[in-house]
Amino acid sequence: MWWGESGDNRPRLKRFLSEVKEGAVPQTLWKHELVGHTQEAKKELIKYSAFTETENVLNSVKPVRLIQRILRIATNPANADIVLDFFAGSAVTGHAVLKQNLEDGGNRRFILVQLPEILPKAEPNLATIYDIGAARLRNVISEIAVAERGKLDGIGSSETLPTLGFRKLKLASSNFKIWDGAGNRDASELQKQLGLFAEHLLAERTNSDVLYELILKAGLPLSVKVEEAEVAGTAVYLIANGMLVICLARQLSLECLRGIAEMKPQKVICLDVAFGGNDQLKTNTLLEMKSHGIEFRTV
Fold it and tell me: What is the extent of the structural domain holding 249?
C-alpha cells in the first residue's frame, strides 16, 4: 500500500505489469489507435448492413474495437459470460462478441434488446433499427463462417465449424385466444363463443411462435437447446436435450404418442385439438404417460 511521501495521501493498491491483463492496467483514456473512432464505426455499419439509403445510416455508432476492449477487460473467454445490451442499436455489441470469441476462442453469448424504430426511408429488408442489427449479425456470421471454412479447407482438415447464429424474438401477446367471460350471455351467445374456441390458437401465429411461448410457460429460458425430430411420421420438438417434448401437430396417432413415451422425457406437451375430441384416447395417453413417470398435459 502506498501512502505518499508525507503519509497523507489516500491509500491505493500498487499493481505490477505482470499481475494484470495484457500487461497494462486499464486507463480512463483510450486512444483511437487502440479502440477505433466514429469513422471506422460508420464504415463497419455500412459494410455489414448493406444500406442503399444514406439517410438510414445511424450517427452515434460505436466501433467494434471499443466494445472488444471492454469485453477483454470485463469478461473471461472460458466462463460462458452473457453480455447484455438493452439499447442494441445496430448490434455493435453482438458483432464485438462474435469477433472477440473468434480471436480468443471464447464462448461468450449476447442478449440484444432494441425497439423497432422506423427508419427514415424503407428499403429491402431494412425498415427499422431492429432490422439493421439483425442484418448486421447475419452478415458478420456469414463472413466468419466463410473465413473459417477457408482455413480448414486450406489445411485439409476434417474438423467441423462451431455453430454460429442467433435467435430473433419479439414481444407479443399470447398465441392462444383469451376467453371473454365478462357479462351475462344467453345460451346462443355462449354457443357462438364456444364455436370460436374450437380452434384456440390465433390463425396468424406460426408453430415457432407457439413453441417459444410454451417453452417460457414450462419455466425454461429462451436460450434453451431446441432440436427437431420425427416420431411415427409426426414432427416433435426436443427441448433441453429431450427433457421436454413438445408436439404441435393437429392430429396425433397412438403410435406417435407411444413413441414419445419411449423417449422417456420428464414432460410432454401437446395441443388439445390434436385428439379430435377423442376423450378416451386423451385419458389413456395421460395414464400411459403417468405409468412411465412422465408429466403430460395439453394446451
Answer: 195-298
What mean pLDDT comes out for the span 93-102?
A: 96
Residues 226 and 126 in one domain: no
CA angle at 128 for the pair 127 and 131, rounded to the nearest 5°: 90
Phi first, then psi, for residue 125 (nearest 5°) are 65, 5
Band of residue 24 on the pLDDT scale cut at 50, 70, 90: low
Same domain, 87 and 137: yes
DSSP state of 268: E
Structural domain count of the chain: 2
The three cell numbers of residue 103 are: 480471436
SS3 category, 215: helix
d(CA 234, CA 79): 38
Residue pair 63/35 in contact (Cβ under 8 Å)? The answer is: yes
Same domain, 138 and 32: yes
**Single residue among 124, 154, 184 that ends a domain in this structure:** 154
Q: What is the pLDDT of residues 30-83, one digit of tens each?
A: 899 999 999 999 999 989 988 777 777 887 899 999 999 999 999 999 999 999
DSSP string covering 127-160 = EEHHHHHHHHHHHHHHHHHHHHHHHHHHTT--PP
- Cα–Cα distance list, 2 to 15, 18, 224 (Å): 11, 18, 49
Length of the chain counted residue by residue: 299
181-197 pLDDT tens trace: 655 567 766 666 665 55
